[in-house]
Amino acid sequence: MLTVMKFGGSSVADLEHIRNVANRCIAKQREGSQVVVVLSAMGKTTDNLIATAKQITEQPSRRELDMLLTTGEQLSVSLMAMTLISMGVSAVSLNAWQVPMHTTSNYQNARFKRIDSERIRKELDANKIVIVTGFQGINKYEDITTLGRGGSDTTAVALAAELHADVCEIYTDVDGVYTADPRVVPNAHKMTEITYDEMLEMASLGAKVLHSRCVEIAKKYGVELLVCSSLNHNSGTIVREKTKMEKMLISGVAADKNVAKIRVAGLGNEPNSTFRLLNLLDKNKLNIDVMIQSLGKDGTKSVSFTVAKSDMLRVLDLLNENKDYLGIKKLDSDENVAKVSVIGAGIRSHSGVAAKMFGALASIDVNTEMVTTSEIRITALIDEAYADLAVRKLHETFFD
Known about the structure:
- The chain is 36% helix and 27% strand.
- It is an alpha/beta fold.
- The longest helix is centred in the N-terminal third of the chain and has 25 residues, at 62-86.
- The relative contact order is 0.10.
């Protein structure tokens, strides 16, 4: 048996937490499993490193920032290996270039291309617990890259897929996946299992337990995930293709405050105008989400869309640089927005979910600016100030 265990920053925040994680890894090995451990940086290390860089410049070189940030994970894996060895267990720490883990060259948001597993397998065959840095890789120039938000989850699942692990266990500061963020909705319910598709929607729409990219990899390669707490031994939530439970109408409610809205006005009313806009964003590796296009009285197009809040300035700079090429007459933005969503496989087979959702929002005087839907979710863009209130009301409407 082979198990990949991933622990987040709060799980290795200090030496006491590291010893706790070490004990869990030893217990897993003694159960008869080979163990690969993926770690995030300790506590707030990454945030502190970013803050230090921004004391030098508000927009640090993306390559150099990656070089800086990856030191956080290297610190945590080396301390974990030392701890295990001091407890009488064979262990070795490896960073991205030692594995190696090959990625694209998009600094700050690289994607895996392939993982060479020979070194890890060799260490496992020597009966060692292998501790690998999360969140990072190396590109074709042999530069260090980072994988963006949730990168350690992505590392763990990618390794589990490459090594054909029996399970990938994701340890966090909560003991599973809940119907809503329990810090916002105290009576949220923990789910025993959830499908990849539902988890993917929840992750991409603000649920912070797992990142969407790791769920995508798990679904593609059939990696079963177990989400549980590093602080207790409670049963967690299993994420897999099919669940045993009959489909509930709604599986969860999520909010994403890490969004900004951008409006581009004055585009020509021709098919190519929208393509030029979206193609420019795509070529610069900038993702958009909710999008609405409308035609003004003067015959020009307006396109509104959302981006990650961290990408807003990059998008605005890019569009300003290409105003003439795109034919932009007016450009504005708003970062005081949030997405609220209801998610569930039952949406595809039940009518009235949208009416119920918007009725709940109307009952608390929350206006919606943009709306998007899929077979298993409905998302509305609202004022960020009302995000938590909206989540509580929606959870009450669908679960209480």
